[in-house]
Specification:
By secondary structure, this protein is an alpha+beta fold. It is built from nine helices and nine strands. It has two domains: about 110 residues, Immunoglobulin-like, CATH 2.60.40; about 180 residues, no CATH class. The protein has a six-stranded mixed sheet, with no helix packed on it. Strands 3-6-9 form a three-stranded antiparallel sheet, with no helix packed on it. It is elongated, with a radius of gyration of 23 Å. The two termini are about 40 Å apart.
């Protein structure tokens, strides 16, 4: 009975996270097609009312002869407009403005210049503008892509659930460290290869396979067969699936884009950001358990003895497996959508 209560509680918590996984930002891409000529393309989620669509603000010296046109396609409002900016965009301020109020949406700007430089900036809902950098620097790229890596892992609930499963399998601090390190090294390899287009696999099958990997680990934990490969060699399992998850990270990184002049720095620090996000997630799980340990001890009636965190392994695995199964069915069904 207690296990069912815990499962329901955990399910409600993860359900709210699963909803966050589906939230989409505004996406604005500005491409310098030739010197001083910029093509501005935007995509706004269809959840925004048609009378509340945002306006892209370009520098005051940028001129356009075309009327702004937006149409609905593929669950989003999309549009395109060309501008002539004789002094370029470097060091200039660009932004987004809603006619009434921003409906809690982030905005992802991507700027590609004719010289090959590429800049990406994510604006929070309360931010309206940013200044395009004068030129790329290692420090700026490192900071930017570290933040993007942390942000991605925290909204990538499927990746976080996989890490949670690794924590439940490894159990001891030493095994947890080795297992997550194997996962890190593996996904770093495929992330780099896929982001550089050395290998390329369509995103939908990769996303479905990632959900399947979470289902597999959850099922292995529930069976609790110590003779299974997963329990005997968790590092081998985490490394194998890490190669798969790296392809998922790469799909996001391709959408964000990589700078042309500081490519190694961007790749390295995106990985660093992902690892920081993973470590923070593991620490958050452990901290939450220790804070709630007295409550759990009373619920599980342990006669005053502290409950061990492995007591939650089975109910947590059922919840994680259920959520991942839902994702798996939806992603496979999407093949024919």
């Amino acid at each position: 009975m207690i296990g069912r209560i815990l499962s329901v509680g955990i399910l409600l918590g993860f359900a709210s996270l699963a909803q966050a996984h589906d939230s989409r930002p505004n996406f604005i891409e500005i491409i310098e097609t030739e010197t001083g000529i910029f093509s501005v393309q935007w995509k706004v989620p269809s959840t925004v009312p048609s009378n509340a669509l945002p306006t892209i603000n370009m520098p005051s010296d940028c001129k356009t002869d075309a009327r702004r046109a937006t149409q609905q396609a593929g669950g989003a409002y999309v549009g395109r407009q060309d501008y002539t900016c004789p002094d370029g965009l470097s060091g200039k301020r660009i932004g987004i403005e809603f006619p009434i109020v921003n409906p809690s949406l982030s905005t992802l700007f991507q700027v590609r210049l004719a010289n090959g430089e590429k800049y990406v900036r994510a604006l929070k809902p309360d931010e309206r503008e940013w200044v395009v950098p004068e030129s790329e620097s290692k420090l700026a790229v490192a900071g930017q892509y570290t933040a993007l890596g942390v942000e991605h892992i925290w909204i990538g609930i499927d990746h976080l659930l996989f890490v949670a499963c690794l924590l439940l399998i490894a159990r001891t601090a030493r095994k947890v460290l080795i297992t997550i390190t194997g996962f890190t090294i593996a996904h770093s390899i495929t992330l780099a290869l896929a982001a550089l287009d050395i290998i390329r696999i369509p995103t939908p099958p990769v996303e479905a396979a990632i959900a399947l990997s979470v289902v597999f680990l959850a099922w292995e934990i529930v069976k609790d067969d110590k003779a299974q490969l997963t329990h005997r060699y968790p590092v081998a399992v985490s490394t194998s699936f890490g190669l798969l998850h790296g392809l998922g990270f790469a799909a996001v990184l391709r959408d964000i884009g990589l700078p042309q002049t500081e490519l190694p720095t961007a790749l390295l620090f995106f990985n660093v950001g992902v690892e920081i996000g993973q470590i923070l997630f593991v620490l958050a799980l452990l901290a939450a358990f220790f804070v709630l340990r007295p409550v759990l001890s009373r619920l599980l009636q342990t006669d005053g003895e502290d409950v061990h965190w492995t007591s939650l392994t089975t109910p947590a695995s059922y919840v994680i497996g259920g959520i991942a199964s839902y994702w798996l069915i939806g992603r496979v069904a999407g093949f024919w959508a």
